[in-house]
Amino acid sequence: MRNFVAIVFDDSRKAYEGLHALWQLDDGADITVHGTGVIHRDQLGHIQVDTKDTHPALGTALGVGIGALLGALAGPAGAAVGAAGGAGIGAATGGAVGLMTDLDRADTREEAADETGFVLGAGQSAVIADVSEDWTTPIDRAMQKLGGKIYRRARSDIRDDSWFSPEYPYGYYLYPYEYIPPTYPL
Amino acid sequence: MAQPATTSPKPVARTEVKDAIDHLRSSAQELHKAISDAAAKRSGATKADIAALTEKAKTVAQSAKASIKAEHGKVAKQLTDAVSHLEATQANLSQSAKATGTAFDTAVKKVLAEARASVQKISEAVAEKRSAAAGNTK
């Protein structure tokens, strides 16, 4: 089954351990990883996407794309705001606005997690991934071992969202290989 | 809406031997990485960089074409699509070699998009093969 997965960790180092574990599962053919990205939410609520030093136009596209994907993980309302906000903000905080809208509510309303699904709190980091998995246990076991909380949304559900482009779908904005910035040595 | 994980039934064991498509995916991933790094140089990307990337794209496309012959159904279709994207990658690399300024930026974006799409198609072929291998041992 093809899923978009978000795994939330309490800190960025754990998130990169999670990213590494995910690609290790791919290496062992337990799952197939099509793309990954890592995001962080700071204490002020701003969300950043970790990107390679690249062409500015590419960085912006990455921010917008991941922003739209985050919105999709947060549900239909999040998708609309996420994609619009990402386009205006660009790479550094790409697209996290839509998610923040819901997350801000999540900070103050207990039921928000049920409304939005994926929740990233202040100071937390998350691995976002596009995966094919025949069963969910490999990812669940590996990530829970690292203290990660896992959320899934079937790619077939996201395809129904109005922001999904068949020509350049969300997953294409994720790195198609394990990218760990030099500042996070494992 | 994304939901917290639930446990799914365990499939049977699958082969862990990496085949030609796994290696093809690694080559395509390296190509994407190299293009992305070259794009970071912006106008500093030299003709030698672009020529080397074009050659690499050609080599990966040839490997993909060779792999198609050994495959069937969805896997063969995905590899065929990957070859199309790899050929488009080569064509756009040629365009970028001739372009400057905004035209160069546009060409680089197209190159990276095509390279990304080729990795995706190969990755989907890998997933298809792994899933089929798991099913075949049931």
The largest sheet of chain A has its strands arranged as 3-2-4-1-5
Roughly how many Å apart are the termini of chain B?
A: 33 Å
Question: Which percent range describes the beta-strand content of chain A?
Answer: 15-25%
Give the helix level of chain A as a range of percent: 40-55%
Number of beta strands of chain A: 5
| Gyration radius from CA atoms of chain A, angstroms | 15 Å
H/I helix tally of chain B: 4
Tell me what you see in this structure.
The complex is a heterodimer of chains A (186) and B (138). Chain A has one domain. Helices cover 43% and strands 19% of the residues of chain A. Chain A contains 7 helices and 5 strands; from the N terminus they run βαββααααβαβα. In chain A, strands 3-2-4-1-5 form a 5-stranded antiparallel sheet, sandwiched between helices. In chain A, helix 2 runs antiparallel to helix 3. The model of chain B is unreliable at 12-16 (pLDDT under 50). Chain B has 138 residues and is mainly alpha-helical. Chain B has one domain (20-39, 46-136): Four Helix Bundle (Hemerythrin (Met), subunit A) (Up-down Bundle), CATH 1.20.120. Chain B has 4 helices and 1 strand; from the N terminus they run βαααα. Chain B is elongated and about 50 Å long. The interface between A and B is large, with 40 and 40 residues. Strand 5 of chain A pairs antiparallel with strand 1 (3-4) of chain B, so a sheet runs across the interface.
